[in-house]
Write a structure and sequence with these properties.
Length: 356
């Protein structure tokens, strides 16, 4: 293990590629949970754990990128940087969700949602204020774009990092990690799983998930737990998918908790130390850039897909083709969003900040 590995860009490319794999797995999971609500019969029934991988990866990357310079750049510039990076797609995802809510071809707009209430749904979405009121949308904390729940906690983690965490020594962070681990185990035991945080009834479970994952990622960086290996991007992708596709066990909550507590930090450490073959370098870069647009723009289709299933009740063969084609189209759409919206918008605001 060596801190020198951190000085190269190689680990970013491997980890970015894994982020893309996790994003595609989340989209697949969202399709499949609509088709098969019993997660124990779902081939990717643990796909929701990809969010915990995101949280752990985020802690590592934020610590890597800002630990050494947040003091000189200042809190204001740190928060502006994070807003430029995250918020354009929060807004776009909410706009797409509003479009689907109003003009879903298979499900009419739920009764009782006039201009005032829909405007409130939209404003709470773009301002990242949880507002779980739409029963027809499973009481998501963010009714128009369900994945925003994890971005809410990502914002909370960034705020706490900017105000406090970056200043703390490793031993204090380790104490906080142990407390967060105890909270995570409590959530897993009482809820019976690790998938909470997305709804009003499970809101605080999201706090437990981000607290542990983000701190674990930070400490992988702070302790320089970089494990040199030859697994490469393909090998590490298989290991990541093994967790997201693992079967359900008798003590399933314990397996999920173990994956989040130990396996994902290990994967980040392995990803940071893995060698990258030039043949897959471009793929890793592409997947890394695609991951966030894909995650934040796909859920409008999930609501439409759910309405289609209820209305037409297609057979398994039709569903299979719909999911495969839908996944391909969503990846293509995310690429367009990345090229035509996310990259130029972030560049515009970055230049604006530089000229101010």
């Amino acid at each position: 293990m060596s801190g020198d590995v951190l000085k190269s860009k190689q680990h970013y490319e491997i980890l970015d590629g894994l982020r893309g794999v996790a994003a595609i797995a989340v989209v697949t999971f969202h399709f499949m949970e609509i088709v098969i609500s019993d997660y124990s019969r779902n081939f990717i029934g643990h796909g929701f754990l990809a969010v915990d991988f995101f949280f752990c990866l985020s802690g590592f990357v934020i610590a890597y990128a800002y630990d050494s310079r947040i003091g000189s750049m200042g809190l204001k510039q740190f928060f502006i940087s994070r807003l430029i990076r995250l918020h354009p797609l929060v807004v776009l995802g909410t706009v797409l969700g509003l479009t689907g809510f109003l003009w879903d071809p298979f499900t009419p707009t739920p009764a009782g949602y006039g201009v005032g209430k829909i405007t409130l749904l939209f404003l709470t979405g773009i301002l990242m204020i949880p507002y779980p009121v739409v029963a027809e949308r499973w009481l998501n904390n963010f009714n128009l774009n369900a994945p925003s729940w994890s971005l809410f906690w990502e914002y909370v983690a960034n705020i706490v990092y900017g105000l406090l965490l970056w200043k703390l020594p490793r031993r204090i962070l380790l104490v906080l990690l142990c407390i967060a681990a105890a909270g995570l185990v409590y959530v897993g035991y009482t809820a019976g799983n690790m998938m909470g945080g997305w709804s009003g009834g499970t809101f605080w479970q999201g706090g437990a998930r981000i607290s542990y994952g983000f701190l674990a990622g930070m400490l992988v960086y702070r302790y320089h737990i970089i494990i040199s290996n030859k697994l490469g991007f393909i090998g590490l992708s298989v290991l990541l998918l093994a967790a997201l596709m693992m079967p359900h066990f008798k003590y399933n909550w314990l397996a999920e908790t173990g994956v989040v507590l130990l396996y994902f930090p290990l994967l980040v450490a392995l990803g940071a130390g893995a060698g990258l073959h030039s043949a897959v370098q471009g793929l890793c870069n592409f997947l890394g850039k695609l991951s966030y647009p894909l995650y934040m723009t796909h859920y409008m289709v999930m609501f439409v897909f759910s309405g289609y299933l209820l209305k037409y009740k297609p057979d398994n063969a039709q569903i299979t083709w719909i999911v495969i084609i839908g996944l391909i189209l969503l990846v293509g759409f995310a690429w367009l969003v990345m090229v035509l919206f996310d990259t130029p918008v972030r560049k515009y605001f970055s230049n604006l900040r530089g000229n101010s």
